[in-house]
Write a structure and sequence with these properties.
The complex is a heterodimer. By secondary structure, chain A is α/β, with parallel strands linked by helices. Chain A is built from 17 helices and eleven strands. Chain A folds into three domains: 215 residues, NADH-ubiquinone oxidoreductase 51kDa subunit (Rossmann fold), CATH 3.40.50.11540; 89 residues, Ubiquitin-like (UB roll) (Roll); 90 residues, NADH-ubiquinone oxidoreductase 51kDa subunit, iron-sulphur binding domain (de novo design (two linked rop proteins)). In chain A, helix 13 packs antiparallel against helix 14, helix 13 runs antiparallel to helix 16 and helix 14 runs antiparallel to helix 15. The longest helix of chain A has 18 residues. The chains are: A alpha/beta, B alpha+beta.
Amino acid sequence: MASRAFEPVLTRNVGNPAALTLDGYRKSGGYEGLAKALAMEPDAVIDEVKRSGLRGRGGAGFAAGVKWSFIPKGRDKPKYLVCNADESEPGTFKDRLLMEKDPHQLIEGCAICCWAVQASTTYIYIRGEYTHANAIMEQAIKEAYQAGVLGDSVFNSGFKLDMYMHQGAGAYICGEETGMIESLEGKRGQPRVKPPFPAIVGAFGAPTVINNVETLANVPHILVRGADWFKSIGTDERNTGPKLYAISGHVERPGTYETAIGIPFSELLDLAGGMYRGGKLKAYIPGGASAAILTADQAGLALDFDTMTKAGSMLGSAAVMVMDDATCMVRSVARLAKFFNHESCGQCTPCREGTNWMELLLTRIEHGEGRPSDPQLLQSVCKNMNGTALCALAEAAVGPVDSLIKRFPEEVERHIRDRACPFPQRRYFENGAS
Amino acid sequence: MSEPTSGAPGATAGASVPAGPGTPAPGAPGGPAAAAGPGPGRRGFSAAAQAQLQALLERYPTREAALIPALHIAQREWGGWLPDDAIAAVASALELPVARVYGVVTFYDLLHQHQVGRHRIRICTNLPCMLRGSDEIMETVRQELAVGEDEVTPDGRCSFVHFECLGSCDTAPMMMIDDTYHENLTPERVRRILRELE
């Protein structure tokens, strides 16, 4: 089935329920990375992670080791790690898998990070809807405390580390670093002005690292197997390590697939069993709702950070959404626009107003009420949202809309010209709903 | 906004008490000691919830940071939503102005300011679920419950809303009922699941 064999790293314990317990996790080689890290100088741990080339798996792709190195040295004041488990990017479901199937892997990654930057507390900010993942993480953390992996003296090293789950309450914007910090502090999740960056002024005014779940899950393996091993996986030195791809939409076997970073989309599609009910590929979005849409003739592109950026899209969270040729692109993008309009926190005018206009214009085009000037108006809205807001949500909303106008102009125009959506209403279930 | 109350009986000024099944009769005398079970109509946190709240406060360097977790606790205590009483009780427990708490409640989708059903149904309709038939799932739920979105069925049993991505796109279409994910749905499965709800 697999066109390229890959021995799972991050998902090696999926299908091994014993790993949910601390003992079971240890039997799979767990907590060796933490033990190794504690025997190293904190800076040496940062260097190893830097050398591995690990880039953030949450969306922005920032080098994790470099981020850690921004944290001021010394232990005179509190520092925090906030693990971003808010996973709300449409199409993304990989972090839930990591937490539900291998909670100790994440705890270990968090603990190593805390040792490296000398942070005393981790908050794992998990989206409020993930109640099952939260319960599993709570149980694993409790066990880790009992075994002395967390608490007053991690592995009797004298290093004190507390770890808490913190449940969000349903807001996409809390996945943005500073929105998350605001929310953790008990406020509306409205992003902050940067600088100062969280590494200097983060949670509760203290230096704070914020890393995605998958990013941290990589860390124990880098410690155990070394930066050179990690660098040997992937496309090139800027795109290294194993990667989880969450593929959904019109494929036969949607799911989370782990491969070396940079698998071509066409090969990932094969792994996922090909197109749904034998359909024909029309388009795919490679990195969550915020990424620009790519077309079928771009199916050979490698799903890595740089290739996707060069193609005018982004790897983002590697949430790959696939659409077949019976899919209306206007309708699909209108749905994403509705999402961004709902999730805009409202503090920056270009985003608050722009996302509203996007939904309005796309909805009327889809309903056959579009005007000939609407595509141009949409492009103008996009232009006015780029780089004019405090956080990346505005630009994220631009991604799918701008690529719709540029890559599917005829489809948009046809909606307007014919005063109707050219695609028949699709039924997925034979019996219907009645 | 009414003052936070420490459980003074009869101090129900202006608060609309929902009359769901199992709800104590509005205005029923119930001092702190009588308020044993959770549910709407009560005036403050139960002892168990207070203990939870206390444990929470130890996790953070500020009291304010416990606000969202505290609101989750309050919402469970008050039958799934946050009437003014609940907001006032949280504000009082965390020593925050009521307006600050209210501002946070209005920001988050999982915190409700109006009555919801005993079972809260959230149907994912974002793109990955839409590409696998979530429209038909919405239609089925609407027909089956015979109420509009965000309305409560006359028996107080259910309310439903469409929802943004719930992170279960590999099992689309899906919905969340209370804390449980129901995945790989078909209209037929949805009907069965809804009929089996208590």
